[in-house]
Task: inverse folding
């Protein structure tokens, strides 16, 4: 995640920001000045991604996120009539460096968000991940576990294990899309039948604007599609919206909406 620039620099004449650096302007070449000014331009936190399936990439040391999600249709049929709306919260944090060693990501999910039963259901998730490259294309490989140590409702679903590989490559066939594409594929012991049976997942996603991406994925036994966008470049807040079970293969078609805030504890103001 790119280091955040103080707001005072963002709203001040750029040259004043350059002159405030601990180097005199006379020591800077024209290219140095251009590079510094370019670094002050906010960059989008949205990259190509695959919606609704595990990724081969993960969080590195100090990187994390908090998120809230809601859907209009619960996946389990016996819960839909009583409470069709379902909400959840999530927190994730990373350790290690996947480029120089092994990265470790941990996630906490709070799956009961109805007033009166907050935190009565939830689970943990863990992921080991490694980043490498092939012909200058970044590749991420992960091994993870979902629904670990569940409490409340998720205890009815077994802990599942998965392995995933993701690659970012370039495309030129679709002019309306940005060049970068992310392709993900993998195996999970709980990809089908609401986390009960093993299956294969695969997805592809790309950016169609500087601050927006979209993807389509096969999540074991259902088709999932979604889009992610960043409303304001100043803030690392992402909004995702999608549809699960598009083809109604499980009779569980539903809208998926989430809002997340990403952070990096290593960033310096």
Result:
């Amino acid at each position: 995640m790119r280091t955040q620039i103080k707001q005072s620099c963002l709203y001040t004449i750029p040259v004043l920001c350059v002159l405030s650096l601990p180097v005199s302007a006379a020591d800077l070449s024209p290219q140095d000045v251009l590079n510094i000014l370019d670094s002050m331009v906010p960059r989008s936190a949205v990259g190509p991604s695959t919606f609704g399936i595990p990724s081969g990439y993960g969080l590195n040391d100090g990187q994390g996120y908090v998120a809230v999600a809601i859907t209009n249709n619960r996946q389990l049929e016996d819960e839909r009539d009583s409470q069709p709306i379902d909400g959840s919260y999530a927190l994730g944090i990373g350790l290690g460096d996947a480029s120089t060693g092994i990265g470790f990501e941990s996630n906490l999910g709070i799956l009961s968000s109805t007033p009166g039963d907050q935190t009565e259901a939830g689970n943990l998730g863990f992921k080991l991940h490694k980043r490498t490259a092939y012909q200058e294309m970044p590749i991420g490989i992960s091994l993870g576990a979902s629904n670990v140590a569940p409490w409340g409702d998720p205890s009815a679903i077994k802990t599942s294990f998965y392995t995933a590989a993701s690659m970012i490559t370039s495309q030129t066939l679709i002019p309306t899309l940005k060049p970068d594409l992310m392709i993900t594929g993998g195996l999970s012991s709980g990809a089908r039948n609401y986390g009960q049976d093993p299956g294969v997942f695969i997805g592809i996603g790309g950016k169609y604007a500087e601050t927006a991406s979209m993807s389509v994925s096969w999540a074991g036994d259902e088709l999932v599609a979604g889009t992610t966008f960043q409303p304001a470049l100043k803030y690392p807040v992402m909004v995702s919206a999608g549809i699960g079970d598009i083809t109604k293969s499980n009779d569980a078609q539903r809208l998926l909406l989430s809002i997340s805030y990403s952070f990096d504890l290593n960033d310096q103001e």
User: Anything to note?
Assistant: The helical segments are 7-10, 14-19, 30-39, 77-80. The CA atoms of residues 203 and 217 lie 4 Å apart. The chain has a mean pLDDT of 82. The longest strand covers residues 137-151.
